[in-house]
């Protein structure tokens, strides 16, 4: 039988397979590194996109906050204007009230009574006057009680200490 030495052929094949393995291992390592680099760039791109969206949202939120403050300012101005309007309407509706009240003071005034002063404070009017007798002052208060425009007349003082002995009264 002939002796064939297969060892150098097997050793050569083993070395070739080892080189192929190392080449494939190097290629896989390079592909892995490329994949990692691509993934890093991809994640950085996603992160930058999200940062840009967040900045856009922050700018919009700031703009909306400014608009909200402006709206609050406008609402406050509106409330002030409504209060002014209400006061004007109230004054407009009570404009004729004073005319009616003075007219009523004149119509209810009996002979022998004279008014010396009128003072208004809030919703009350203080009337001071002089009369020839207490009965005429009482008649004046009764006339005021019957009036449509004057409510709850109240005599505070009737005084006859004036030099001409006429009665002085104060009504509210």
Name the strands of the widest sheet in spatial order: 1-2-4-3
Question: What is the helix fraction of residues, given as a range?
Answer: 55-70%
Number of domains: 2
Number of strands: 4
CATH topology-level fold name of the largest domain: Gyrase A, domain 2
Instruction: Calculate the terminal CA-CA distance, rounded to whole Å.
Output: 153 Å
CATH superfamily of the largest domain: General secretion pathway protein M, EpsM
For this structure, the quaternary state is single chain
| CATH architecture label name of the largest domain | 2-Layer Sandwich
Rg from C-alpha positions?
53 Å
Give a written overview of the molecule:
The chain is of the alpha+beta class and 172 residues long. It folds into two domains: 46-93; 96-171, General secretion pathway protein M, EpsM (Gyrase A, domain 2). The chain has helices at 7-93, 95-108, 134-146; strands spanning 113-121, 124-131, 155-159, 167-171. Strands 1-2-4-3 form a four-stranded antiparallel sheet, with helices on one face. The N and C termini lie far apart (153 Å). Mean pLDDT is 83; it is low at 168-172.
């Amino acid at each position: 039988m002939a002796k064939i030495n297969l060892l150098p052929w097997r050793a050569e094949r083993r070395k070739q397979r080892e080189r192929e393995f190392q080449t494939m291992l190097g290629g896989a390592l390079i592909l892995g590194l490329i994949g990692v680099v691509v993934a890093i760039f991809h994640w950085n791109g996603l992160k930058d996109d999200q940062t840009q969206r967040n900045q856009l949202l922050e700018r919009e939120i700031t703009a909306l906050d400014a608009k909200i403050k402006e709206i609050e300012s406008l609402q406050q101005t509106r409330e002030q204007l409504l209060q002014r309007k209400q006061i004007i309407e109230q004054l407009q509706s009570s404009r004729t009230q004073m005319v009616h009240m003075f007219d009523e003071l004149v119509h209810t005034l009996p002979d022998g009574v004279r008014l010396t002063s009128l003072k208004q404070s809030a919703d009350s009017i203080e009337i001071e006057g002089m009369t020839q007798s207490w009965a005429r002052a009482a008649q004046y208060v009764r006339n005021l009680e019957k009036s449509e425009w004057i409510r709850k007349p109240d005599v505070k003082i009737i005084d006859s200490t004036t030099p001409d002995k006429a009665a002085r009264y104060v009504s509210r």
